């Protein structure tokens, strides 16, 4: 009579990892449950229970404390307590009767608790490894499993499978009459920038000719370029219907070793799709947008284009792009806006009096920017500048910063902008700034200036910044005091412990209504990566690149690096998804997630990500 | 058997004590489930409640009158060492001849066709007696279970034991009466009492769920009333 306990089954089924169990097995599991009532203030396990069990909280609240009394987690309805569970079946048979835990677990409220003996779960785990994995894996392993799933899904759900080829083809198709000469075809290809033309006979497509055909079938064969194009075209041309999905188009091209595929609608030629269009389709949006930006001639045109940026971010998020990819795409576009504005300014104010470079700081430099972020920028100028030259740079700075603001990149609240004379200085002053920060660090000064440790040249003379950076990195590698101060700052931002009911549970046991993904998750990783980079002399500023390059150095083990990247990507993914929803609703995007919009499974993964970050913060703390 | 003799036998049982009644009936009981039940000693009334083995039981019936109405389904689960074990849970719909009234179908969700697939009353009562041997019966609003089970025993065996019972409704009522403040009788409903103890909402009117719900309520009641763990069975017996 399995249906009799369906209500309890439904409850258990809502809790990962049991959500993966088939109904029948779930029913078996439910029949193995015990129900206990534990009075407020009492400890777990309930009196008289010695064998290892997994506890499932049905009602009430439980706190788990480390031996030194530090709160580790607080559990509410539907949470699992595995403090008295042995995931290792052999350890279970050895220890036989009693179970001990590293944690002290006590009830904060009267609790109704379901429990199941470990041996029962081991049996189920033999047939359903997802169950045993869930309990035997540590935070980092679980997170890794999750992220590899995410990446797989991203491939499967990528545009190509789900989008029709009609989204990718270029229209109208460049065509040429069969009577035209090979030379005329070459001229047309050059003029229109196509590498492929469809050949028409009385308006009907009869073949296709590519620049490769001209090389191989004409020039290499010594055929006169005055011959008609039909001489060298490929006659049995493959086509694809506009309704087909893009993945099929790519497969067809791969199978036939062709790069161009005419697209038909009701047998009429409507466009042409290329391999490049398909393979680069995600980046293509960003590239396309950059192309339009480069062609814009006025600020109002740029402003118009800037409205597309949130749409791009939504689209990228929908495609299942990683946060890394979204960040890089959005940053590339901000860079295109900035460059175009600088070109407009140079046109307006004339050429720069001396060489200089426009620098992006913070998230843009790290290529981790999202739509509607604020601008952080600076100018580094050649030491040959004269005091009166600054007037030109001030005009440039004002024009570009105002322009960026018009395009939706709000002014930096901390005034880290090229319009601020402090951040518009010759190379030697920049050098002095960094020397000062590194040699006489104060935590407060570093808090304000850490944004300058993530700098990238957007426009102008790249060598100006590179020289400063090179000297900076030599200094930071040696200065343990500086790294210590930087670490101290970074440790101010601690990830929360996890969740309790629909609240975020902070390290101090207090509750918060929302999760600040940026400050409680992403920023701590960015800070850690910066510390590793400066300590190890790594010049990259992108967080993932920094972590990858720091992997295997004294600062960071390879395994920790992988875990940290998993945590970072998971947090980034949640942020991108969250912001896409807000952008789609026409709201301005933020980093605040209500626990109510986070699924149970995501909460578990978040907890794992927090644990990974916390352990690396702790490692950092203990090294000083 | 008339209602007077039924009442008399209860008084008689109460005067003698359920254990004495058990021994007395054991001598007369026919071979089978009832005899098996009666051959297991019942816990002494001075046993600490935490040590007593309990069977939480619930019946769904076609009405309130044990003489006319029929048992529709039986659900029970064991409460032992202050722990409910769902492994011991039992639920069975009974095959009876009576047509189900529509109003009852709505309450119990048991339809005629389901009932056709049910078990015979004799088998279900046998299962219940087997599980009940040596245990105290826990119910919410004892009248139904007490009268229907007694009636069924007379029907099947020609005699009925005196079942030691705990009634969560009566336990709640005693507490409320002690306070000498008037209260709405609806406060004593299983659902409302559970809510008062902040137990989760449960799907009422399925015999097994109600049995589990009653057992949970009893554990919650004892967590308050039996803090020192020294309460003897007699303090909570009906």
UniProtKB/TrEMBL annotation, chain A:
- Write the record's keywords in alphabetical order, separated by commas: CBS domain
| Pfam annotation, one family | CBS
* CDD domains named in the record: CBS_pair_CAP-ED_NT_Pol-beta-like_DUF294_assoc, NT_GlnE_GlnD_like
Residue span, CBS domain:
169-225, 233-289
Report which superkingdom the organism of origin falls in.
Answer: Bacteria
**Occurrences of domain Cyclic nucleotide-binding (ranges):** 17-79
- Record-level Gene Ontology MF annotations: [protein-PII] uridylyltransferase activity
Q: What is this protein called?
A: Cyclic nucleotide-binding/CBS domain-containing protein
Starting at the broadest rank, the lineage of the source organism is: Bacteria, Pseudomonadati, Pseudomonadota, Gammaproteobacteria, Alteromonadales
Automatic annotation (TrEMBL), chain B:
| Keyword Hydrolase carried by entry | yes
Q: Specify whether Transit peptide is a keyword of the entry.
A: no
Name a single GO biological process: DNA metabolic process
Q: Which domain of life is it from?
A: Bacteria
| GO CC terms in record | cytosol
Sequence ranges assigned to domain Exonuclease in this UniProt record: 53-227
Species annotation: Colwellia demingiae
- Alphabetized GO MF terms: 3'-5' exonuclease activity; nucleic acid binding
Which keywords annotate this record?
Exonuclease, Hydrolase, Nuclease
Query: What name appears for this protein in its UniProt entry?
Result: DNA polymerase III subunit epsilon
């Amino acid at each position: 009579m399995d249906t009799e306990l369906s209500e309890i089954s439904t409850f258990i089924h809502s809790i990962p990892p049991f959500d993966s169990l088939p109904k029948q097995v779930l029913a078996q599991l439910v029949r193995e449950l015990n129900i206990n009532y534990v009075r407020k203030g009492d400890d777990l396990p309930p009196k008289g229970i010695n064998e290892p069990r997994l506890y499932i909280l049905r009602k009430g609240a439980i706190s788990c404390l480390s031996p030194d009394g530090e709160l580790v987690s607080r559990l509410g309805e539907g949470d699992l307590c595995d403090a008295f569970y042995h995931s290792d079946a052999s350890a279970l048979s050895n220890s036989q009767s009693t179970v001990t835990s590293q944690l002290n677990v006590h009830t904060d409220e009267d609790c109704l608790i379901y429990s199941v003996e470990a041996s029962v779960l081991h049996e189920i785990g033999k047939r359903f490894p997802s169950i045993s994995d869930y309990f035997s894996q540590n935070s980092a392993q679980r997170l890794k499993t999750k992220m590899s799933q995410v990446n797989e899904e991203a491939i499967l759900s990528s545009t190509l499978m789900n989008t029709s080829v009609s989204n990718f083809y270029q229209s109208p198709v460049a065509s040429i009459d069969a009577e035209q000469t090979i030379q005329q075809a070459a001229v047309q290809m050059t003029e229109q920038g196509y590498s492929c033309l469809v050949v028409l006979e009385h308006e009907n497509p009869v073949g296709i000719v590519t620049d490769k055909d001209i090389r191989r079938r004409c020039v290499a064969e010594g055929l006169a370029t005055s011959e008609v194009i039909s001489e060298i075209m490929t006659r049995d041309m493959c086509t694809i219907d506009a309704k087909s999905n893009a993945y099929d188009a790519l497969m067809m091209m791969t199978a036939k070793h062709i790069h161009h595929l005419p697209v038909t609608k009701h047998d009429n030629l409507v466009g042409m799709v290329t391999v490049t269009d398909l393979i680069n389709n995600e980046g293509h949006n960003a590239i396309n947008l950059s192309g339009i930006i480069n062609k814009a001639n006025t600020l109002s045109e740029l402003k118009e284009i800037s409205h597309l940026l949130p749409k791009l971010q939504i689209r990228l998020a929908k495609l299942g792009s990683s946060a890394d990819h979204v960040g890089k795409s959005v940053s590339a576009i901000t860079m295109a806006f900035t460059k175009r504005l600088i070109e407009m300014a140079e046109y307006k104010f004339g050429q720069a009096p001396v060489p200089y470079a426009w620098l992006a700081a913070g998230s843009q430099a790290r290529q981790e920017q999202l739509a509607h972020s604020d601008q952080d920028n600076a100018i580094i100028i050649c030491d040959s500048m004269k005091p009166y030259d600054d007037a030109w740079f001030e005009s440039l700075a004002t024009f570009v910063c105002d322009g960026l603001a018009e395009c939706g990149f709000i002014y930096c609240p901390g005034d880290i902008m090229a319009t601020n004379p402090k951040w518009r200085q010759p190379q030697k002053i920049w050098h002095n700034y960094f020397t000062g920060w590194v040699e006489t660090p104060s935590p407060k000064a570093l808090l304000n200036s850490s944004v300058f440790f993530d700098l990238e040249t957007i426009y102008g003379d790249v060598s100006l910044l590179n020289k400063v950076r090179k000297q900076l990195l030599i200094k930071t590698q040696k200065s343990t005091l500086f790294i210590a101060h930087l670490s101290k700052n970074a440790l101010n931002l601690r990830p929360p412990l996890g969740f309790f009911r629909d609240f975020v549970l902070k390290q101090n046991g207090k509750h918060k209504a929302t999760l600040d993904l940026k400050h409680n998750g992403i920023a701590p990783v960015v800070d850690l990566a910066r510390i590793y980079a400066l300590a190890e002399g790594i010049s990259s500023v992108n967080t993932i690149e920094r972590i990858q390059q720091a992997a295997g150095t004294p600062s960071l083990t390879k395994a920790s690096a992988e875990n940290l990247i998993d945590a970072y990507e998971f947090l980034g993914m949640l942020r991108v998804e969250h912001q896409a929803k807000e952008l789609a609703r026409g709201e301005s995007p933020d980093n605040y997630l209500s626990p109510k919009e986070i699924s149970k499974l995501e909460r578990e993964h978040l907890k794992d990500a927090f644990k990974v970050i916390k352990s690396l913060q702790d490692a950092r703390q203990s090294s000083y | 058997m008339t209602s007077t003799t039924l009442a008399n036998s209860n008084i008689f049982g109460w005067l003698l004590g359920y254990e004495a009644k058990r021994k007395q009936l054991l001598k007369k009981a026919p071979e089978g489930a009832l005899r098996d039940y009666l051959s297991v000693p019942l816990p002494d009334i001075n046993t600490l409640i935490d040590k007593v083995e309990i069977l939480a039981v619930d019946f769904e019936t076609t009405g309130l009158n044990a003489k006319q109405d029929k048992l529709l389904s039986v659900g029970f689960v064991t409460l032992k060492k202050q722990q409910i074990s769902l492994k011991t849970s039992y639920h069975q719909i009974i095959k009876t001849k009576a047509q189900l009234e529509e109003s009852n179908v709505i309450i119990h969700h048991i339809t005629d066709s389901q009932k056709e697939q049910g078990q015979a009353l004799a088998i279900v009562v046998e299962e219940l007696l087997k599980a009940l041997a040596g245990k105290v019966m826990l119910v919410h609003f004892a009248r139904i279970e007490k009268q229907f089970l007694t009636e069924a025993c007379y029907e099947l065996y020609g005699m009925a034991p005196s079942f030691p019972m705990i009634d969560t409704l009566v336990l709640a009522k005693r507490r409320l009466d002690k306070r000498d403040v008037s209260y709405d009788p609806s406060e004593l409903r299983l659902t409302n009492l559970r809510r008062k103890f902040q137990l989760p909402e449960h799907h009422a009117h399925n015999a097994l769920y109600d049995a589990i719900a009653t057992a949970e309520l009893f554990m919650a009641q004892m967590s308050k009333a039996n803090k020192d763990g020294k309460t003897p069975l007699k303090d909570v017996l009906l």
